[in-house]
Write a structure and sequence with these properties.
The complex is a heterodimer of chains A (230) and B (263).
Chain A (H helix, E strand, L loop, with lengths): L2 E12 L2 E12 L3 E5 L6 H8 L7 E6 L2 E2 L4 H6 L1 E4 L11 H12 L4 H11 L12 H13 L5 E5 L7 H16 L3 E5 L3 H7 L2 E6 L2 E4 L7 H12 L1
Parallel strand pairs in A: 3-8, 3-9, 6-7, 7-8
Antiparallel strand pairs in A: 1-2, 1-4, 4-5, 9-10
Helix pairs in contact in A: 4-5
Chain B lengths: L1 H31 L1 H16 L3 H6 L9 H28 L1 H5 L3 H5 L5 H33 L6 H26 L7 H20 L17 H5 L6 H24 L5
Helix pairs in contact in B: 1-4, 1-7, 4-7, 4-8, 4-9, 7-8, 7-11, 8-11
Classes of the chains: A alpha/beta (230), B mainly alpha (263).
């Protein structure tokens, strides 16, 4: 089985501020990869570099075997991304946002979108500006999943979702992963890592360390954060 | 790219309609009140033409306001020039930066489309909006002439409206480049740029030493009085406009493609 994500010696800084330092990472196809670490550790910088939102000069990133810079558009056809802040265009209706995302992809995702909307109880007739954070996140999940991508990248996906929706969300992930997809899950929730992830890594002060197992206890988990504060 | 263009047009439709109807409506109103002011204007026509630098600045020394064409060139020329410039500026200065300002950038750019195509779609949207704005305003002005039973000086009118369209493109290109710089909405700066260009032209026409540098500003080739009195704008003005527009657009494509986007 090949690697869905291959990051090789990625370094990114913002002027004098540290972003990530010499990050190397491999995520195998079919994995649910837990990406944990304190706020500002560099998780989002790594994800944003993978998706081309920020430019890096040192290192390389391969997604689904393709170069993240040269094959940017082709990669995004096969990636479903959910940002930590789920923002869209306020004046648009939910159904229009979902259709817009599918139209830009140039594919008809209506069947899959309807299935996910039903499972997550998404109110498609409401306007985005009428939605709470949790409901915006549900729209974001639909947009990330409706085209059945090969790789999911979720940045703190469950914040704002009620427990039942969190359960449905992970059921959907497992369903897609069972069909061959891969998932990178950036989160602060230990139970999610323990329960759903097959492998995991922690990011601290811009550096990445692979964990031997994603099954870690509360004390070990909190120690990662305490060390950062110290 | 077509999907993004259509979405942008839809999101901007209300603004386009409001600005077109307000600017065109004010212009139409100016035309419609001409009859009630005709006698007074004719009576003080000479005074208007002999107010020194003030007459030069507003073009009243070039063209008689006693005719509807002269009145249109001076009055509606000012309204449309200023209104169109402001509309072009605020439309273009927000169109790229609003994605980061409204935090929708990550959603848009996680879709399989390059940043260059996003810039192209939004640039085409601005172009279409300026064209529709010009057409709606032009139609309202023509309606004004028809309502008064006056024949429209078609050649000069088309030249005037097309010049205004080009001027709007130039201002929007400058603001489009600024929009590519960061994720902050700089509407105030956009309005400032439009006003600065307008005031530059106004002062340039009043101050003899500045007259030979008028061609630098975008308002130099859309002066209603000059167009309606048959004068041609210097070729240098169009060359500068083409260079400024092209450089601004190239800069927007280049810079937006290479910079880090805010979350």
């Amino acid at each position: 089985m090949g690697n869905a994500i291959e990051i090789d010696h990625l370094t990114k800084s913002y002027g004098k501020n540290r972003g990530v330092i010499d990050v190397s990472l491999k995520v195998k196809e079919g994995d649910i990869f837990g990406f944990i670490g304190p706020n500002g550790a560099g998780k989002s910088t790594t994800i944003r570099s993978m998706l081309g939102f920020i430019k890096f000069r040192e290192g390389s990133i391969k997604i689904l075997g393709m170069d993240s810079v040269k094959d940017h558009e082709e990669i995004l056809k096969n990636v479903g991304y959910m940002p930590s802040e789920a923002w869209f265009y306020d004046s648009m209706k939910v159904s229009d946002v979902i259709k817009y995302a599918a139209d830009v992809r140039g594919i008809d995702c209506s069947q899959e979108a309807a299935k996910i909307c039903e499972k997550l109880k998404v109110s498609t007739e409401k306007k985005i500006k009428e939605l709470s954070l949790g409901n915006r996140k549900k729209v974001s999940i639909v947009c990330a999943m409706q085209h059945k991508p090969k790789l999911f990248i979720f940045d703190e996906p469950t914040g704002g979702l009620d427990p039942l929706m969190q359960k449905h969300f992970f059921e959907l992930i497992n369903e897609y992963v069972d069909k061959g997809a891969t998932c990178l899950l950036s989160t602060h929730v230990l139970s999610e890592v323990n329960k759903y992830c097959k492998t995991a890594a922690i990011m601290r002060e811009g550096r990445l360390t692979m964990l031997d197992s994603p099954k870690i206890d509360d004390d070990t988990f909190l120690k990662f954060y305490e060390d950062e504060e110290a | 790219m077509k999907t993004i263009l259509l979405k942008e047009m839809k999101l901007n439709f209300k603004n386009l309609l409001i600005w077109s109807l307000v600017v065109g409506g004010v212009g139409l109103g100016c035309i419609l009140i001409y009859r009630s002011m005709q006698e007074e204007i004719a009576g003080i026509g000479d005074t208007f033409s002999n107010m020194g630098v003030f007459s030069d600045a507003f073009g009243m020394s070039t063209l008689s306001m006693a005719t509807l064409a002269g009145y249109f060139a001076v009055e509606v020329g000012t309204v449309h020039g200023l209104g169109g410039g402001m509309f072009a500026a605020i439309t273009a200065i927000a169109i790229l930066s609003k994605e980061e300002e409204g935090h929708s950038g990550e959603f848009l750019l996680s879709l399989p489309i390059s940043r260059k195509k996003v810039v192209a779609a939004k640039g085409i949207c601005v172009l279409c909006m300026m064209a529709v704005f010009t057409i709606i305003c032009g139609a309202l002005y023509a309606l004004g002439f028809a309502s008064l039973g006056e024949s429209l000086p078609a050649g000069e009118f088309m030249k005037f409206m097309f010049g205004q369209f080009l001027m709007n493109i130039e201002i929007s290109a400058v603001c489009f480049a600024i929009s590519s710089l960061s994720g902050k909405n700089r509407m105030g700066m956009g309005l400032g740029i439009a006003l600065l260009f307008y005031v530059y032209d106004l002062i340039g026409r009043a101050v003899p030493d500045l007259k030979e540098y008028l061609f630098i500003g975008p308002y130099s080739y859309v002066n209603g009085s000059e167009i309606f009195s048959g004068k041609t704008a210097p070729a240098a003005a169009f060359v500068i406009a083409a260079i400024v527009t092209a450089c601004s657009l190239l800069f927007a494509f280049w810079y937006y493609d290479k910079r880090d986007l805010a979350s």
